[in-house]
Amino acid sequence: MFEKRIISKSDFAPFKNLKSLFVAEKDHRNTLDTWRVLAIFWIVCQHCIIALGFDLTSAQQLRILANNNFKIFSHASFAVDIFFVLSGYLIGGILIREKKNTGGINIKLFYIRRALRMLPLYYVVIALVIVARSIDFLPPRNYYAFSALPNLLFINNLIPLHLQFLPWSWTLAIEEQFYFLCPILIYFLAISFAKIMKFFAFLLIGIMALHFTIIYMTDLKIYWSIFRTLDLASYDRYLDLIYDKSYVRLSSIVLGVLASYWSHLELDKKMFASKIKSFTWLLLAITVIVYVFNKMDYGPVQANKSLFFECIYRELFCCGFIILMFASLHLKYLSRPFSLKIFHPLFQLSYGIYLIHYIVADALVNSESFRKIINHDIPTPMQILGLGILTFVISAILILPLYIFIERPFINMRARLFSMREVSIPGVANQAKSNSEKC
To answer: By the 8 A CB rule, do 286 and 320 touch?
Structure first.
């Protein structure tokens, strides 16, 4: 496996790494990259409102929540579910192919690949934030005032959200926890694919049942509002028991794994084998997503919120999204726009953008220039959209040096070290390079 040197100067070649931003793989997975970029931008826009909300009065926050034009930004919590579905789909596909082609899964190599992909940039960003905080380069904020140790161990989602360092990184903790458990489960469940997927299906049902039980037994108020200060106690209790906890949020990743098995059986192609089937599935997906969106109530009132709906609404959305994802893979009129080259550099930088975007958004919404633009009142939806674009662009520019000198070198290193092993497996040669970049 390691016939080649672990460290090579070519991995750190800056011009080569810069060029990689614009070199897209010619495979269907480029459409999945686009979904990830759009999801991150969606979250960036929502976090712009959240950052602004800390300086708004309750009356101003309620005005935003009462304006239906802002609802698309409140819905952005579903973008996290898109992340999770995509992660489960990609990682599930990798593990399924490896088990099929080799008869098993090399857990050690899987963990090494994951570490080389996720850890270097994440740890460098954490270190830079700590240094910037210590020299007062960053303004005083709670989100980097606490210990970063739980982040380093990917257990930060297990502590209260308002006490977390870089609290938006709880999504990474859940993904890494899943990546730790998934190959072990598949390895020790040395049985057929069908039985493994049945296990994941029962796991999904168990997660939803646990979700219901926690809310019912704790008499938990269902709180979907994006503003913490409207109801501090309800917000914190709901987030700390439900919102960022693995025992609830893993369901989206599990659905992604089940979707990868669906693709393994090539059932996704059959869904769009004719125009009638394509129309039917697309109509179903849009209907489900619109239904979920219309049922969401982001106001402070709790009594009219359904416990049953709370326990299934994310799973419903994920099922609708999975259909749209399959459609973007197999329908040309969707796959073409989703495969535009403009999305590739944004995808390459998307991990870093996600890591720093809230710091950028916080700086922008608290700038005097932005305050003057909104006349110290609430912004319009178009202003939030523009702010989201500006935040996304500035984050991309700031993260570019770290991509060239930190993130990309380790991606190159991983691809080089594992390429010989991957291409020696029948049917994996064409996937080797793209997998190392995306997962």
So the answer is: yes
